[in-house]
Structure formats: structure tokens, C-alpha cells
Design brief:
By secondary structure, this protein is of the alpha+beta class. The protein has six helices and ten strands. The chain has a five-stranded antiparallel beta sheet with strand order 1-2-3-4-5. Strands 7-6-8-9-10 form a five-stranded mixed beta sheet.
Length: about 180
């Protein structure tokens, strides 16, 4: 479980993207979810009783705490943020410059957490709005409109601290993995 210092830091980061819908993320129709800290990784999982020393990985990696106790969201949290996102931004292409901006939700404020979508409504990642909606209309086409935090390309590259399902099975049963 989280300490009293870690809980508000994590909730503050997540609420940048989903605001008051944070409670909806936890109390869902498909079960009761909770956050667990495992090896500095924050995991969202269905509530379960498993001894911490026997746990390899269970649930979805939501983010991690840095050594300075800041919380960083991982791209694997995107599927959980999308249904509750209050502020959205749609792109024509891959770059988050004004020239690549297709649409932005009204009343998005500067430094607001935003979920980034393609024009065909596919979630691509999340970041922080560099400008408000009104300022985005006036800035130069090469100006940055979103500061990158995470995108789906990171799932392809992977994170060394996030185990694959084969690695979890191998570690659980003491098996060796051989390259193909």
C-alpha cells in the first residue's frame, strides 16, 4: 500500500488528466480497484490479498515513483485515463506542434494535463498543454502546443523494469527463457 506522502503525490498527477473522475477510476462496475506500490512501480489492480514477497506482477503498471519521490505516469495507464479524460487534443500527424494540431477541446488551460488522440479518435498518449485553447489559435505554426509525457510508441520499446508475461511465468515457476 501507499504511504501518506505517496498517496497525494500520485492522486495529484492522475487528477491532472481526469480531474474529479478520479473516484470513477477506482469504483468501477467491473470490480473494486486499488493501487499497489511494487518495486517503486505503481500498479492498478483488482483488490486481492497476495503476500508482497510472493508477488511478481499483478495488474497494470500505472506509473512509478522517482528517487526524489515524484510520480511519473507510464503509457500503460492510457487505457484507464481515456474514459475519464476531461481535456482532449486531436492531431493530424505525429508531431505536437501547432501545425499538427487538428482540434483542441474548448477551455483547456495552460499546463493542463491532456490526453492526445489522432483525428480518428485513437488515443496516442498524454502530455501537458503548453498553451491554453485561446493561445493555441494565435501561436506560430511551429510552436509547441503539448509537452510530451508518454505515448504509445513507448509500449513498443518497453521498459526494463516492466516484465513481460513470459518473464512473469518463468520467474514464478523457476524456468529459464531462451531466445528464439
Amino acid at each position: 500500500p501507499l504511504t501518506e506522502e505517496e498517496t497525494p503525490v500520485m492522486y495529484e498527477k492522475i487528477s491532472k488528466y481526469i480531474r474529479e473522475n478520479l473516484q470513477l477510476l477506482m469504483d468501477r462496475l467491473d470490480g473494486t480497484y486499488c493501487f499497489w506500490l511494487h518495486n517503486d512501480l505503481m500498479i492498478l489492480k483488482l483488490a486481492a490479498n497476495i503476500s508482497g514477497n510472493k508477488l511478481v506482477s499483478l495488474g497494470t503498471c500505472f506509473g512509478k515513483f522517482t528517487k526524489t519521490h515524484k510520480f511519473w505516469l507510464h503509457i500503460t495507464a492510457l487505457d484507464f485515463l481515456v474514459p475519464y479524460a476531461k481535456y482532449k487534443l486531436f492531431l493530424y500527424g505525429n508531431h505536437v506542434l501547432k501545425s499538427g494540431l487538428g482540434q483542441i477541446i474548448e477551455n483547456t488551460s495552460q499546463y493542463q494535463g491532456v490526453v492526445v488522440y489522432s483525428m480518428s479518435d485513437i488515443p496516442l498518449g498524454f502530455g501537458v498543454a503548453a498553451n491554453s485553447t485561446q493561445e493555441c489559435r494565435k501561436v506560430h505554426p511551429k510552436a509547441t502546443v503539448v509537452f510530451h509525457e508518454a505515448d504509445i510508441g513507448e509500449q513498443c520499446v518497453g521498459h526494463e523494469e516492466t516484465l513481460t508475461s513470459n518473464e512473469v511465468i518463468a520467474k514464478t515457476y523457476g524456468l529459464a527463457l531462451f531466445p528464439v
